[in-house]
């Protein structure tokens, strides 16, 4: 299959990685917990 996909809950990390691989932003996680 050979798919390389980067998933992260921080938008900045996804934006940086998107120059190199397909990315997916995970809207839930430690960085996105409701306060």
Q: Say how many strands there are.
A: 2
Mean pLDDT: 85
Return the string of H and E elements.
EHE
Structural class: alpha+beta
- Helix percent reads 10-25%
Low-confidence stretches: none
- Main sheet makeup: 2 strands, parallel
Gap between N and C termini, in Å?
Answer: 40 Å
What portion of residues belong to β-strands? Answer: 15-25%
- Oligomeric state of the chains present here: single chain
The value of Rg in angstroms is 11 Å
**Count of domain modules:** 1
- Count of helical regions: 1
Strand order of the largest sheet: 1-2
Shape: elongated
Descriptive notes:
This protein is of the alpha+beta class and 35 residues long. It has one domain. Helix content is 20%, strand content 23%. Strands 1-2 form a two-stranded parallel sheet. Strand 1, helix 1 and strand 2 (22-25) form a beta-alpha-beta unit. The protein is elongated, with a radius of gyration of 11 Å. 0% of the residues are buried. The mean pLDDT is 85.
Topology:
Layout: E1 5-8, H1 11-17, E2 22-25
Parallel strand pairs: 1-2
Concise synopsis of the structure shown:
The protein is an alpha+beta fold and 35 residues long. It has one helix at 11-17; strands spanning 5-8, 22-25.
């Amino acid at each position: 299959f050979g798919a390389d996909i980067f998933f992260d809950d921080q938008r900045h990390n996804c934006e940086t990685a998107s120059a190199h691989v397909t990315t997916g932003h995970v809207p839930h996680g430690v960085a996105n917990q409701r306060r």
